[in-house]
Amino acid sequence: MQNRALIYTCLSLVIGLTAAVWMGHLAQPATAEPAAPTAANLVPKYCDTWFLSGVNVPWQNTGYGADFGTVEEWGQHLYSAEQTEAMFAELQAAGVNTVRWWVFTDGRGAPEFSANNGGTVTGLDANFLPSMASAVQLADQYNIYIVFSLWDFAMLFNDSTAFDRGEHAGGHRNLFVNSSARQSFIDNALLPMLAHPVGGYTIGTHPHIFAWEIMNEPEWTVSELDAVDSRVPQPVSLAQMQRFVAELSSVIHQNSTQMVTVGSAALKWNSDTALGATGNIWADDQLAPYAADGTLDFYQVHYYHWMDGDGVNWSFSPLVNSFADASLDKPTVIGEFSANEDNMNQFLTGLLDNGYAGAWSWGYEQVDAHGGWADSKAGYTTFNQNNRSITNIANVCTPAAYIPTVVR
Predict the structure, then answer these.
(1) Cis peptide before 363 (omega within 30 of 0)
(2) Using CB atoms within 10 A of its CB, is residue 21 exposed (0-12), middle (13-18) or buried (19+)?
């Protein structure tokens, strides 16, 4: 109840009503505690604002890169409509509103390439679009909203072989450094995907696709950030990465009604003032020079306990750095964190109280030591029941065209 009181207090300032009028309707007075998300920093969509309470899929049946595409060398295509329906039904019952689902990952299954090492994009395999359309239709049926994550930073790992990760896994630096190769991805994969019909819409206009994430944790591939993953033999420059993000964001904004984000590895690179942060490389002034409409609609940062730091000189924890502490200028979702947090309801409530606009646990299926849905189900259920007014997404309206966040 206290969180709602703070929301109404902030809203009264935004719409110009007097504090005295609003306080007559509030059960509790405002305090000096961190403000919960308001209309100013929840995520805007469907003529309202929301807290994105969700989970990472991020792939089914351990099939990294094989949900929508097909890893040809092994005949591996693992999307299952039955499993997707069961998953969405279970998540809906717990009040979950969003899933973050990976698409191309490192390129092993999709899109199709003209050569084993790099090459231009020639299209999408026969399984890809029907599987994606099926997932979107099921999301519609169960009131789940999908955030599709296009690429993983593993796309810049060494090129692989058919007997290792698949002959198209990794080796795709050319998409960053070669404008013709990048355009081939846009023309032969991204645009056909956005235009594909599904349920009376296209993929690019369907209301149950909430947003697109250009890349997962791109910072591990950028030379200037001093954090290059050892498996990345040839990093890209920050300018090349920002251009990649901005140009793809621009295409999505121009050809869809959906939002765009990036899965930043940590607050270190998405904040100017968080403890030990080096600056926000995803701010508008960083991306707009490459494409005026290529900026992000909301931020997304990841958090694991190795980021806790000493809490004095450095910490990239969203529980240590509030939305205000981090000087964030857009709604910010915590896009990855361990599903086996000790007290999930308390963790989620802490993020809400610190001003963040969403939280997606890693993951639904347990794919590593960070747990799975069984670990987080009870906490999510309680949290979503307690915050239904901002987690129970209702499609109040559907904008006919992309509208920048600043206008919304």
Answers:
(1) yes
(2) exposed
Q: How far is CA 407 from CA 2, 44, 184, in A?
A: 29, 10, 32
The dihedral built from the CA positions of residue 356, 55, 150 and 205, taken in this order, carries a sign that is: negative
Q: What is the pLDDT of residue 395?
A: 77
Task: Report, as an integer, the average pLDDT of 310-331.
Answer: 97
Terminus-to-terminus CA distance in the chain, angstroms?
Answer: 27
Looking at the structure, do residues 62 and 5 belong to the same domain, yes or no?
A: no
Q: Which residues are paired to 305 by β-bridges? A: none
Are residue 336 and residue 291 in the same domain, yes or no? yes
Provide Rg for the chain, Cα atoms.
Answer: 20
Helix (H, G, I), strand (E, B) or coil at 206: coil
Residues contacting residue 245 through CB under 8 Å, at least 6 positions apart = 214, 215, 218, 262, 282, 287, 294
User: Domain range for residue 8?
Assistant: 1-33
Looking at the structure, do residues 154 and 244 belong to the same domain, yes or no? yes
Per-residue pLDDT, 37:
62
Residue 399 has pLDDT above 60, yes or no: no
Give me 273's structure tokens: 């003032």
pLDDT of residue 50 exceeding 60, the answer is yes
Mean pLDDT of the 146-150 span: 98
The span from the CA of 164 to the CA of 28, in Å, is: 60
To the question of pTM greater than 0.90 for the whole model, the response is: no
Q: Is 397 a domain residue?
A: no
Token pair of 204 as six digits: 């690019």
Res 213 pLDDT > 80: yes
Number of folded domains in the chain?
Answer: 2
**pLDDT tens digits along 160-174:** 877 778 778 899 999
Q: What is the pLDDT of residue 74?
A: 77
Helices (H), 24-120: 81-93
Q: In whole angstroms, what is the distance from residue 298 CA to residue 65 CA?
A: 25
Give the CB-side neighbour count of residue 337, counting CA atoms within 13 A. 28
Do residue 11 and residue 129 come from a single domain?
no
Residue 404 has what pLDDT? 52
